[in-house]
Fold this sequence. Notes:
The complex is a heterodimer.
Chain A: E1 18-22, H1 26-38, E2 42-46, H2 49-58, E3 65-69, H3 77-88, E4 92-96, H4 101-109, E5 114-117, H5 122-126, H6 129-144, H7 146-161, H8 164-173, H9 176-186, H10 194-198, H11 206-219, H12 226-233, H13 240-269, H14 272-293, H15 297-312, H16 316-329, H17 333-343, H18 348-370, H19 376-403, H20 413-429, H21 431-437, H22 440-502, H23 504-517, H24 521-531, H25 538-551, H26 553-571, H27 574-590
Parallel strand pairs in A: 1-2, 1-3, 3-4, 4-5
Chain B: H1 2-19, H2 25-33, H3 41-65, H4 71-88, H5 91-106, H6 109-140, H7 142-148
Helix pairs in contact in B: 1-6, 1-7, 3-4, 3-6, 4-5, 5-6
Amino acid sequence: MENGFCSPRNDTFPAGLRVLVVDDDPTWLKILEKMLKKCSYEVTTCGLARDALSLLRERKDGYDIVISDVNMPDMDGFKLLEHVGLEMDLPVIMMSVDGETSRVMKGVQHGACDYLLKPIRMKELRNIWQHVFRKRIHEIRDIENHESLEAIYMIRNGSDHSDDGHLLSMEDLTSVKKRKDIENKHDDKDLSDASSMKKARVVWSVDLHQKFVKAVNQIGFDKVGPKKILDLMNVPWLTRENVASHLQKYRLYLSRLQKERENDLKCSFGGMKHSDVSPKDPSGSFGLQNSANTQQNDVVNGSYRFSVNNLLVQNVDPNNKHEDESIVSEPTAEPERASNTSHLPDPHKTKNSQMVFNHSFDSLESEVNLTAFDSTIPTNYSWSEVPEMEFNQEHKPLTSVENGFSNLPLLDPPHHIHVDQLQSVSSTSSKPSSVDRGITGPVNIKPHKGEYGSSQVNCVTSTVSTTNSFQTKTIMVNDQALEPIYTSTCTMRTQGFNQSRITDLESTQRNQTLGNGSPFVSFDDELRVLFQGDCYGVDLGLHNVDFPEYNAPGHIDEVPFHLYDSLRPSYEYLCETAEFYNRSTTIHSMN
Amino acid sequence: MERNHLQRQIAVMRQSLFDQGLVDEQFVQLEELQDDANPNFVEEVATLYYRDSSRLIHNIDQALMKRPLDFHKLDSYMHQLKGSSSSIGAKKVNAECNQFREYCQIGSAEGCVRSFQQLKKEYGALKKKIEAYFQMVRQAGPDKTACSRN
């Protein structure tokens, strides 16, 4: 597992390991203390989770590892686990007398590095140093590897915030079948079994991610494939699917970084607006992937917003927020991005999109300001998922080019699918964030806000309803349904863009009216519940733009054309256009 | 000779704890933790267990008197008791804990009451036996505990 990495800090390493034990049961506390002492560990015991937390906060570097009971009267063990993960980033071992799979899973999902069943044996405790050791190895790697830091940051955010409901919902949405189908299509080497997908909820701990990054670097970006990575990582319980989905995320993450860089560049050129749009998309893809993996709440939120933005171009603000968060969490990431940007070439997509999106961009900004985001979330989710499946295939070549990951190598065919979609999306959306940062972006945004603020608020609710209808459809239809949805999204984008250009206010009003009519409210509610924390207002923008077109069949048909026209030069999608067109019509008929 | 006799008695008593299914291998684990720093570790743990669990037993008693029964709360109490009982390897008490929780699951008040009676019986029986055992061990002196093991 360790791949022969550096040795521990000192010769006596396992001895003197500082362990904090938290259990409300004094008997177990006494036994564990004794056992740990016999292992030559330095033990601190604590009968209350709250006390443990304050101990940890007082001495942030005072402990190497935490062992906590799951059931405690003053604070749920999982809660403590979350806090420790967020604030201290210490390895946490959960323990309980209950070995129910769901409980153990919950612990692992919340970031526990191990889950011990009572009665706990000393031999189990003797080995806990490995968690500390593993972490140290990765920390060293972090220092060595800049990229890995960024990736970690991203991963951490997601894992810390993830909660069960969210994950579950994601899983439901992303049906195993769909994935399998995709994989079968694109991955000739390894056909994954559908059942394994269900188990794909892997919390990508920092350690795990480090292994992943290391494997990727070893293989080289041009040649990476999930199977190769899996073999290199040598983690027995990890499945190829886990790695594949993580690889997608990772690529998206990198692509997003690139986009941001690109955006910065574009801002200087003056054709910034388009780039802004594209950044949003990548984030959206992130969110989707993340949810599938069960890892990252934060990311998901951001991604949601992004995806919506792509379609509607409204979410610029959310994107910015997302970036801000990331910055805060990891200052180091920023410098890298900047440097990367310089290297990255401008994507083709950006150019195209620029033409179309400038107007929409303004409208988006105003929406962001409004901050009525709850309802929008559901939509984003459906969008992001659907597009990934189908879009990827079509856009693969494009994506790679667009993202222009200077650092990143070409994606493998199977992998490409997911990544590509994201990238393509991102090309549209990614830039908004940069815009905010950039000089040009803010200027444009402000006026729009003033004009449209009130109208936008109303729109949000309407969008939600529309979104719901989309989602419900997709769910019902399964794979087939997904495709149509995807197309619809595409149409939405174009429409949104067009409308935004023409008249922001009018479009929003239309959207509102249209949205109210949608019958799928109940569905939205469910979605909202799942995603509540994450989604801010990503969907708002989309709603405004999309709705008018959606309602009118004629508009939809037109949309594909627009998209194609814009896309063709950069992407060479001639063949695909026909497909899109069909899809759009399907959507239309569905509506 | 007398020491040997006492030693034999201790060994027999200890073995009967296992033979009667009162304790499981966790008890052996505790014995292995005993060392110079804590020569009476097993007894200390057992004492702590009985002190702490009596509070839980009382709580469960109280909860069982209320109607309707709060099965969720009862289950939570019993979860605690089970965890605690696992610390000294109180095998039969543990089994009753499981039984009780099953009754909680199906919402059987009668089953809960009945199994709790049984649980208390096992709980008391173990306490009695184990206290007698520790008393004899103490009589034999610290050194002899180790000999009493297989």
